[in-house]
């Protein structure tokens, strides 16, 4: 299992366009990937789940993955968040 914490920096949080980019990137990995937002555990490969997660600017979330490419998955998604989804 791989787990990292990251703070969402972009103005819109993980909504609409960033959520679409996030889910598309997560879908490229074989590992099971989750976003943990307070008490919510969200499937990172579910656009509905990610958009309904209410993840806004300034929130700290955990990215967790389990599977053969878990480290690459977590590193890639954390980097996307840190890069503000290229906004």
Automatic annotation (TrEMBL):
Domain HPr: 1-87
Cellular localization per UniProt: Cytoplasm
Record-linked Pfam families: PTS-HPr (PF00381)
GO biological process, one term: phosphoenolpyruvate-dependent sugar phosphotransferase system
Keyword field contains Cytoplasm: yes
InterPro entries: HPr, HPr-like, HPr-like_sf, PTS_HPr_His_P_site
Entries under PROSITE patterns matching the protein: PTS_HPR_DOM, PTS_HPR_HIS
Top-rank lineage group of the source organism: Bacteria
Keywords linked to the UniProt accession: Cytoplasm, Phosphotransferase system
Keyword Transmembrane helix: no
Gene Ontology cellular-component annotations: cytoplasm
UniProt function note: General (non sugar-specific) component of the phosphoenolpyruvate-dependent sugar phosphotransferase system (sugar PTS). This major carbohydrate active-transport system catalyzes the phosphorylation of incoming sugar substrates concomitantly with their translocation across the cell membrane. The phosphoryl group from phosphoenolpyruvate (PEP) is transferred to the phosphoryl carrier protein HPr by enzyme I. Phospho-HPr then transfers it to the PTS EIIA domain.
Protein name: Phosphocarrier protein HPr
Organism of derivation: Acetobacterium woodii (strain ATCC 29683 / DSM 1030 / JCM 2381 / KCTC 1655 / WB1)
Gene: ptsH2
